[in-house]
Amino acid sequence: MNAANPRQQRPARGASRRPRARFALAALLALALAGAVAACGASTSANGGKIALVAYSTPEKAYDALIPAFQKTPEGKGASFTTSFGASGDQSRAVEAGQPADVVEFSLEPDMQRLVDAGIVPADWNQNRYHGFVTDSVVTFIVRKGNPKGIHTWDDLVKPGVEVIVPNPFQSGGARWDIMAAYGAQLNEGKSPAQAQAYLKELFQHVPVQPASANDALSAFTNGKGDVLLDYENDALEAQAAGASVDYVIPDDTIKIENPIATTKDAPQQAKDFVKFLYTPEAQQIFADQGYRPVVPSVFQRNADRFPTPPGLFTIDDLGGWDKVSTEFFDPENGIVAGIERDLGVATQ
Question: Which residues contact 56 (CB under 8 A, 6 or more apart)?
């Protein structure tokens, strides 16, 4: 082409329109793509995210109230939830194996530690003033209305003819609390560790069935199985509120239950906001209304009449902490409870 000739530089009429049309189409596509990207971003922003909650079995009804309460806050605007509830150990192992989770709440700390060790939950999950625990409870005896067998103490559980329902401790975190409450109560009464272990062996001779979770155990009991159920205080209160024909006894010597909560490493900000909300007075009162002992002192004091402190209350730390207890009692090969279960023909895996 001769650059000095203007006629040869001018394109043909049809050719001059095609680049403009292509440019306009490209611009429209770019705008559409930008809008799609913005829309995707909004789904994980502070407004409009989806939160996957995976928890142990008993707080399901509490979350039925907590989730709508959070959605009414500015931080919870547009949030949607998927929820999964089940035996604490099973839930923890499911998340470890790949079940999606943004918020995890378990019955006991070792189920959370499993996810820390797997790199799913941050190691600093418990670095708040409540040490990562969102609710408390105590182990109680749930009995038939009127307590016809006169069950008041741990010794009453091993009397002839008494059937005790306890979940499977190799599936249920609640069962581990129950067992350590029974063991620690014996120590509180002045017995030796060997005598306390012998008590556990005798107690399991009175256990006709071991459901998978605390919820399943409560269902079995309210459907007529057994004379007494070892369970959370909050389950007892919930069963009474639902009209079940039960009473409950808080033994003088029992254990303080502490329930951990955390967000996973890849959780969206709205999931973190949800966990923060669970420590507000509003949310802690909802927990209290469902029978859980609030961890926020001001809310606990407001509900103190409902939650008496047993004279012989002790903690898992008084028994050496979960690291020691898990190895000594619940190692599936060599643990004390594993040996008791094998003698009964119950699986420990």
Answer: 85, 86, 87, 88, 91, 105, 106, 107, 111, 173, 174, 213, 214, 259
Residues 101, 243 within the same domain: no
Q: What is the mean pLDDT of each run of 10 residues along the chain (349 residues)?
A: 37 39 38 34 48 96 97 97 96 98 97 98 97 98 97 98 96 95 98 98 97 93 97 94 95 98 98 98 97 97 96 98 97 95 86
Judgement on whether residues 174 and 250 belong to the same structural domain of the protein: yes
Same domain as 166, residue 193: yes
State the total domains in the chain: 2
What range does the domain containing 83 cover? 50-135+258-306
**pTM to 2 decimal places:** 0.83
Sign (positive or negative) of CA dihedral 18, 19, 24, 26: positive
CA distance 324 to 342: 21
